[in-house]
């Protein structure tokens, strides 16, 4: 228990700072706002609140509020631990689902680009109309993503709450009982999102390998395509982080369900999930788009080529 609390004390604050870094920079700089980075922004919000669960866990620990237990059921429902479990399930699912929507976004973008390239020759005279229609389409699509993510999380967390299944667990307040079937409300989305994300990542990597740029001429189209490629790679990194950092939690909960408890995976879960937000912030801060923007802001020497670069809105 003390080991887990120590891990939370080290990892949670720096992860929350990392999430805030993404949120603040996204809000401050208009050039970072586009249809792809919207997903990163909302995942950062989910990460921030989900990681704050670990700060609350630390506070509960020093207030001697029961939250660590291997019992199969909870007879006395602690309102504090119950509320934290509900909070944790909602924003944990939000983090998972926003990561998954990034996978869907990248997958859709690659197939959309193929159609776009086929119609490139006939679109020169209608760029403004196409751009306007595309932005309206993006706004409508994002609303559906919001409805899916927040709606799914609300229903998921509420069903478990109505059934009074939140309480102490091996890693803090969550769903009571290692082999509680209600844990499939967490496991099934994890199995599905991780598996499909891996499959889609492999498909995209194969496609990228086959469609490397054949021209080195610095045309507007080539620069735009290069930016688009870089941004899709950035989104893929976020998806990869999600897979890597949530895999220990998936393995742990699966082992617990079958009555196998490994201290190593309990500690690994505490480290990985509480550090995901930090890993995301590192990807955000080292992305070509962010570095180019910071270079312009700090050095304050925008050149003509940088001024002509397109904003990615794919």
Average of the residue pLDDT scores: 80
Structural class: mainly alpha
Using DSSP, what is the number of strands? 2
- H/E order of the elements? HHHHEEHHHHH
Radius of gyration: 22 Å
Q: List the uncertain runs.
A: 121-132, 304-314
How many separate helices?
9
The outline comes out as globular
Short description:
With 314 residues, this protein is mainly α. Helices cover 75% and strands 1% of the residues. It has a two-stranded antiparallel sheet.
How would you describe the overall organization of this protein?
This protein has 314 residues and is mainly alpha-helical. Helices cover 75% and strands 1% of the residues. Strands 1-2 form a two-stranded antiparallel ribbon. It starts with a helix and ends in a 6-residue tail after the last helix.
